Amino acid sequence: MSGLGWVLATLIAAAAQTARNATQASLTRAIGTIGATQVRFLFGLPFALVFLAVVVGVHRQPVPSLTFPALGFTLLGALSQIAATALMLYTMKSQSFAVTTAWLKTEPVLVALVAAAVLGDPLTLPMLVAIAIATAGVLLMSVKPGTLGAMWQDGGPALTGLLAGLLFGLSAIGFRGAITSLPTGDFLIRATTILALSLALQATLLCIWLLAFDRPALLASFRVWRQSLGAGFLGAFASQFWFIGFSLTSAANVRTLALIEVIFAQGVARFVFRQGLGARQTLGMAVIIAGVALLLRSQP
Known about the structure:
0% strand, 81% helix
């Protein structure tokens, strides 16, 4: 996979993540926010290990040796993603599925700036303009005229949604940093190795937390094991392709193209949750598409 292979990987990841988010949103009502948060990690880990075994067996490449920078970046990504997922599910309790997804997708500007400073990822003026346009489309979709102030009151959905987006951005930077810090292997084995490592860390940390503070939530996830397995598989599958994207191009490219997930979410909101789609949302989607198209044109 080369050239614009990251585009295909990102589109697959965005579609799988939309399905995963919808599954987790329904789990939140059944087993609570923390219980639904740990599902994507604990039930996703077995699938990640299977992915790693398949990649090792097919490509006949050894698992790369872990370096301290790779471990540090993985821990940053893992912790940020746990917190971001919990905030995302919390926000979904009070906002529609599509609006919550839109708030989360305000992350690309931060990702572009921080990744350029920390990881040395390329950042050009056309890329910045494309990211700004696509992010403006997200805000157009999610913020109703005259309601922005109200949404910020009492720790409302804007605050939790934007904070979740910030943490998802940090997780993207952490995971890309981990993948690029591995000393050997092609893009696929490095991406899959960090996926398995991150899910192992996340599953361990959350299980310890739940055993100590919320054992009923952990047990509840096993009672709804069919839904939990579905969410775990979709989470691991989406992450596999996110990580492939991070191994092939900058985090900013991947997270900006990932804004297409907002459009996928509108489809889920309309046809699964029966939530309406207005003219403002339609215009916002058009602006997002324009920004994504400019991003793709700006690639070398």
